[in-house]
Amino acid sequence: MPGLRLMAGGLAHGMVGLSITPAIATIQPRLRLIST
Predict the structure, then answer these.
(1) Looking at the chain, which runs of residues are DSSP E strands?
(2) pTM of the entire structure?
(3) Under DSSP, is residue 36 helix (H, G, I), strand (E, B) or coil?
(4) CA dist 6 → 11, 17, 23, 30, 35 (Å)
(5) Torsion, Cα of 2, 4, 7, 10 (10° steps)
(6) What is the rounded CA–CA span in Å between residue 19 and residue 29?
(7) Cα–Cα distances in Å, from 4 out to 10, 11, 13?
(8) Three-class SS of residue 33?
(9) CA distance 7 to 15
(10) Which of 1, 14, 20, 24 is most open to solvent, judged by the fewest CB atoms within 10 Å of its CB?
(11) CA dihedral (24, 30, 33, 36) positive or negative
């Protein structure tokens, strides 16, 4: 059923987004320290 696949894909994408956002927030200050 394609509908369930779309829902599962959307959930997976949301989970990935939620995990990437804090990672970027923690990496950005380190990148600034390295670049200076």
Answers:
(1) none
(2) 0.44
(3) coil
(4) 9, 16, 26, 36, 40
(5) -60
(6) 17
(7) 10, 10, 14
(8) helix
(9) 12
(10) 1
(11) negative
* Cα dihedral value 18, 19, 20, 23, nearest 10: 120
The one-letter amino acid at 7: M
With tokens 């927030």, the residue in question is: 25
Per-residue HEC secondary structure of 2-19 comes to: HHHHHHHHHHHHHHHHHH
Residue 1's H or E segment, with its range, is: none
CA atoms within 13 A on the CB side of 27: 6
User: What pLDDT band is residue 1 in, cutting at 50, 70 and 90?
Assistant: low
